[in-house]
Structure prediction request, 160 residues.
Amino acid sequence: MVNPQMVMYEEEFNLIQTVVDRLVRDANAKVVFIVDKNGQLIAASGDIDNVDTTSLASLTAGNIAATGGMAKLLKEQEFATQFHEGEKANIHIQLVGNRVILVVIFDSKSSLGLVRLRVKKASEELNHVFESLLKKVAEPGADSPFSEISDEDIDNLFND
Prediction:
């Protein structure tokens, strides 16, 4: 089942970005980013100028979907953590609250133990942010970011 698009407010985005920025420093990582399960990049920090974050985000979501299929075959709920080790770069992937994917790219200047420790704390913080975001969106009478857009506005958008 495909997840519906997530609504993001500025306040929650800033909290998420703060967690991502801190994780880069605390884990001594090269790059940290968060992706939704549809492959959309939510936040990124670190040396992102040298990384194709759009492609990496899509591939990461595909990787999570594939391992989710393997988990089902093995009668597991999900494989929440993955680690890929390369010659120069390592990738730690963590599913957060079964909603978003936290990706940490690091090299020999850090260690898997440090990354796992810092990811655990960051995951807890992120889970709280996304829980609060879901409550905010689900509140009856909550202002939707789309409430001021009418059907007429949408029709006018596609008319010349």
